[in-house]
Design a protein that fits this description.
The complex is a heterodimer of chains A (537) and B (432). Chain A contains 26 helices and 6 strands. With 537 residues, chain A is mainly alpha-helical. In chain A, strand 3 and strand 4 form a beta hairpin. Chain A starts with 10 loop residues before the first helix and ends in an 8-residue tail after the last helix. Chain B is of the alpha/beta class and 432 residues long. Chain B has a single domain, classed as Alkaline Phosphatase, subunit A, CATH 3.40.720. Helices cover 28% and strands 12% of the residues of chain B. The termini of chain B are close together. Classes of the chains: A mainly alpha (537), B alpha/beta (432). At the A-B interface, helix 2, helix 14, helix 22, helix 23 and helix 25 of A face helix 5, helix 7 and helix 8 of B.
Amino acid sequence: MTTPTASQATPSRLATALRSTRSAPAEGPAEADFFGLADRSFDLSSKSLRLGGQRLNRPVLPAALRQPQRRLAEVLPKGLAKSGRGGTANLEQRLLQRLSFGWNLVMQEEIESMGIGAYVDRQLNPQNIDDGGLEEALAQAFPSLAMSPAQRLVTYFENQEEVFFELILARLYRALYSPRQLYERLVDLWTDHFNIYLFSDYGLWLKPTDDLEVIRPLALGNFPDLLRASAHSPAMLDYLTNASNVSLHPNENYARELMELHSLGVDGGYTEADVKEVARCLTGWTFLSEPEAGFQWGRFFFDAQQHDGESKTLLGQHIPAGGGIEDGERVLDILASHASTARFVSRKMLRHFWGYEPDERSVDKVAQLYVDHDGDIPTMVEGVFRWYRMTRATPKVKRPMMLVTSTLRALFAQAEAPLILLATLFSAGHLPFNWGPPNGYPDSAGYWSGYLLPRFDFASLFLLVEEYGISIDLPFLDPSEDPAQLRNILDLLLLGGTASESTGQAVESYLRTRPATRQSLAEAIGLMVASPEFQQF
Amino acid sequence: MCEKKDDPGCREYHHISRRGFLGWGGGMLTAMAVPTWLPKVVMASSENSSRDVIVSLFLRGGADGLTLCVPHGDDAYYDLRPTLAVPRPDGGQALRAVDLDGFFGLPPAMAPLAPVFANGDLALVHAVGMPQTSRSHFDAMHVMEIGQLNPGTLASGWLGRHLQTTAPTQNEGLLRAVGIGFGLPRTLAGAPQSLPIDDFANFDLKGDAATLGQRRAAMEAMYAEVPGILGESARNTFRTVDLLKQIDFANYQPAGGAVYPAGELGESLRSTAALIKAQLGVEAVSIDVGGWDTHEFQGPLDGDMATLMDQLAQGLAAFHQDLDGSSCDDYVLVAMSEFGRNAFENGSRGTDHGHGGVMMVLGDHIAGGRVIHQWPGLGPDQLYEQQDLAITIDYRDILSEILSQRLDNPDIDGVFGDPTYLPVDRGVVQSG
């Protein structure tokens, strides 16, 4: 990939860029076509795999991130010595699975030596965790991330796929390698909660800024701030078409989703009349979309002339005439401090971190924390982890992204060319920022269990094809080792010794009947990655 | 409705189906003459295999209806399209419209479909679409694939809901729907037992072929006893692999001398025909065809769009010939696009996003040989928002009729249920 030179966002250049992006990639498979994803030559077993004509093999990982692998050599023998087969996940392991994009042995050692309280505390304060240079490396490798919308547009309008790949790869690399794992899981939660589809209208130019300025900085802030920031986010106003919500022709799209999906919940006690009133309050909330805006293009703008200045009444509260932009701010205050919002957000958080069906008592408890602490997210998360004995948590099915990241994290694998990761997420329907409807990627076992072949493909291939650029360098994974011992090592590495007898047996007898080669070992690892236990967390 | 009620397979395979066994790729080769591309097919008995298989073709990008089906009888067309109009059938140009009914015609690139139209197996629907106002690809495709004007958070597609509300035809509904490509298109979202399949010939576990059997056995052992949806789904995946292996897609021989055009669409239609003929219980296939977003240098006669239409027409003609030439003609194919394009051409010899468009319906049981329309006209006062062909037929009318009459779905409300929508009979399906 060559990086286009940054250009100045002059009105004339913006005009050119906007004209040429009017025929932007269409939604669905056509968009995949646009990025070369749907090319029929896109064959996972082919060694000449390319994506969108790109090899995507720029190494971006700082050396510091490879450190934990060395620790593993010390941790593994201890684990082998004490763990038996067929164990169940202990509290620490279950907790790590839930607060990260993938458990591994080094994390397990850390939490056991630090204690759960101190470990969770540390994860709740990500600013105090050294990220090993990850953010700096990403900023260098992916310059489109930090640009303003205007600059992104004029720089990349002829290379739109760069913006697409950079945003998605940054998401993947952070999930894979950031030591701030709990923080990244919250980014995941809010990215779905405030879902924005990358291919809606100006999404490609605006969503990276939403990620940079709304979701990431506030993921561990407080929920009311997050709600307000999202409401001012041009990407959201564009995606849910509030940009065309004007006094003469109100557009209820955003107003409805703001209540249904972002705050109160569908049963949160609002009426159709409330939807209309909220829409009126938000008339004129838009962003600068004309080329004349220059470097300010794509920034939030309150268009007072398009605002409905009359009085409104919503959720039993009167909003006097002439409030201007304050009408909308008032709506956000009302919604953020509503009891339904506290419960809706708490339930979602419990579902994300604990299990699909949290009980009402726990929802009440976390909701009370929301009320008592003004929606402080770390307090709520701490509450979730404190009240829930994670060992009692019912297993969740890993979404494809989690499958991919947890595999690489468990094996301390390096992903230099993450093609197979993107290919897997694409085939499995879980590319970041690619969910069209406003409700975000589903968080349910049913949705994600239906189509397993891309997972099996990933498991079979990720270590087999050298060109994929996934490497693991673990000296104790020696093909000539005794199959029973290899089985134990793989069980411990990937599942913490919790593999079922049938999975362990399948892996061991595979190793026994195959020649002791690297390929056989890679295939055995693939089997364990494809196992039912590893599809869950 | 269907003369082959007792025989689930096509006539060519009756000798197999009459043996009446059901098994999964167990090497049940029959000694009788079996087409080589279908070496191991075994037929399940069926309650109702008379339902048509539906093939839904989505032309992504907004296909220009005024080119796909040329209104050469409307003089305004030639005023609106000074450089992009397809010449009248009686014009002297070498490249001119092929007349269909005195008012509409096919562009020359679509000429291969003229005989299909003439023998009554192809109907065109004009000034059709979803009566919505958006000119965004995303919004327009979204509402059209969901099949509701205000979908809200509804995530299932119209074809997905059709399958949800009907019982499988055979094989316990192991594989009821296929989306050709990566990822299931939204049209099929929510469909039970549906899979996106890009490469039919290689739908299998990947990796070293030499170790595949053993790896597969290991995986089956791991999942054999797993309860719940995860275990069920894994076991279904293995069975679907076996199901599709019964068909040798690579050596499939089309019937009737049909020749599919090279390229993705031809390949997809060819695989679809093989799938339909094998009668494995697949009830719906969805195919996407990209490239219709013709803002610049549209080329309706010999440019980009002509190439696309040529592929489309050749593909559909071959598909028709292939299935018509077999006894396996219980299918209906519908082609649609998210919107038509501006009635005016723009300054770049292209057209921008518009409104009303064209649908195509192909099949042995449709009342073809007609352009179904309520022509709104192209005059200045007749255009939608003074710029587009208006929509006078809701595309759901066409689909409702097909679903209720050819796919035995008695509950159209369950698919398109929408307080603002009442289906109107457009007579697209043969009566009786």
